[in-house]
Amino acid sequence: MRLIHYRDIVSKVADMCQAANYDLGEDVIKAFQNAQQTEKSETGKMIINQLLDNAALATKTRVPMCQDTGVAVFIVELGQDCHIVDGSLIDAINEGVAEGYQTGFLRSSIINHPLTRQKTEQYNAPSVVHIEVVPGDQLVLHMSAKGGGAENMSTLKMLKPSDGVDGVKQFILDTVKVAGPNACPPLVVGIGIGGNFERCAYLAKKSLFRPLGVRSQLPDIAQLEEELMQEINRLGIGPQGMGGSTTALDVKIEIEPCHIAALPVAVNLNCHASRHKEAVL
């Protein structure tokens, strides 16, 4: 049994929260650079250049690349042979989020009550934590700073099996059309298919943690990702909704088995920054 100390988790999470907001991922930068070469609109090219300049400035000055520094979302791979000492895993993550956001001068966006709008006592916490128990003795933290604009345009629908692939694709395209400029394109489109009502939403979120440019290991799903990428980019929404051929930087799909009478589909949109970090303890 391997012991992992509470304070080590707090410190690592605090660092991740700041790095996610200050440093655009190399996978996203590469996707922007590729888009510079393929974008057909001069306005679109200008906006992509501005997004790259903004990212470079954020890294250099250690300030957030966007004023919406997001809700901290974690997918945690907890090795079954490791044990957290001096406190609980969830408490350590939330303390790390509060510490990282407050000392990093990142905006606190979390409210305690969705109707009264009362603020939480912890700075930008609690976070959203999903735990998956896996073999081994490591603790792997996947973190995303998920902005409100893109999250607000995300959708879920319980399709009929008879809707088939064409119905799935149409629902996804309709979601991106309705989102338009509100989700801060160019987007990373996360899709969950299968499971049940709540599980397909989790799958859509989980897909966004996969690095840009990495396709599904299932050949038919990888092909569907490519097809959707092409069709979304033909919508003409473009960077920041100003028109162009780069509406999506990538499309990610995760699937799971489901009931014979169901075809759940969730679309979780990520803004152009697609802020995500990973740490292993």
Please describe what this structure looks like.
The mean pLDDT is 96. The chain has a four-stranded mixed β-sheet. It has helices at residues 6-22, 26-38, 42-61, 89-103, 148-152, 164-179, 197-207, 219-233, and strands spanning 2-5, 71-79, 82-85, 128-134, 139-146, 155-159, 187-195, 248-258, 263-270, 276-280. The longest helix is centred in the first third of the chain and has 20 residues, at 42-61. The protein contains eight helices and ten strands. The chain is an alpha/beta fold and 281 residues long.
Average predicted local confidence, pLDDT? 96
Strand content: 15-25%
Weakly predicted, low-confidence segments: none
The total strand number stands at 10
Q: What is the string of helix and strand elements?
A: EHHHEEHEEHEHEHHEEE
What percent of the residues sit in helical stretches (DSSP H or I)?
25-40%
Shape: globular
Number of helices: 8
User: Structural class, judged by helices and strands?
Assistant: alpha/beta
Distance between the termini: 14 Å
